[in-house]
Amino acid sequence: MTDSLSSTRLVLAALFLGGALAASLPGCSSDPEPEGPYTLENVCDRLPAKICAQRSSCCTKGGSFDESGCVAFEKSNCQKNVADVEAGKMTFDGESIQGCLDAIAPWASQCFLSSDDLFSYGEASNVCRKVFAGEVAKDGACDRSEQCALPTDPKESSFCEFDGKCALVRYVPEGTACDPFAGNGELCDRGLYCDAEPQQMLGACKRVTAVGAACDAQSAGNLECGLDAYCDTASAKCTASKGAGEACASSLECRSFGCEMDKCTNPGAIFDIRLCTGSSS
Length: 281
Fold this sequence. Notes:
The chain is α+β, with helices and mostly antiparallel strands. It folds into 3 domains: 9-172, no CATH class; 173-207, no CATH class; 210-266, no CATH class. The chain contains 6 helices and 12 strands. The longest helix is centred in the N-terminal third of the chain and has 20 residues, at 43-62.
């Protein structure tokens, strides 16, 4: 089993942690707000400090937090969004902000996500995407996710990818043809896995095998145990993924998606350095 065969888990991490969720309004506090609605005139003064205050604990655990840098970064993005609304390129829904705060705050507190958490976190982030909603279609140019058109299908999420283009991820149901190595934005829905082998590439979305049940240990890169478990070659049973510091032979065995020097690495914090400090370095 090689690290490259853990691509399904790594794709999820890249799509969500690096794109869709990072550019929503994650980490906002659910503390009571002052009287009065959010408007285009006040949203950039009211939200940034609250976003960064809620984010601070997780960022500190992840290694770095700069409050002034974080606030400046969030305010700059907010002002860009307001400008796009005024130019007719984006809509603003201030009434969705409280729902965003309530939906995202628990994840900011949790800070480190398991693979399966990404599904729920993705659903929560779509609430925040309603606040500023752009109209750029898939593959259109972008520099932040709010510019991308918000999908109407709850099984889809849009975001600005690392290459500066709007991308779409779609969760497909059981029985759908799948290719975990295609990079086409289609992923098997929660509780499913793609049964494709590296040699055949194309497979179908199937129900995961439960932890403790027998699995095919002879199949290289077997993903049948799902995202939070792996097929143990010694017992030929689905086994819960390992925590930081535990011995590993592949990143597929680790809850963090990372296996270095035969040890599972710590999971990355949900907020990257750019969101924590306002800088990419």
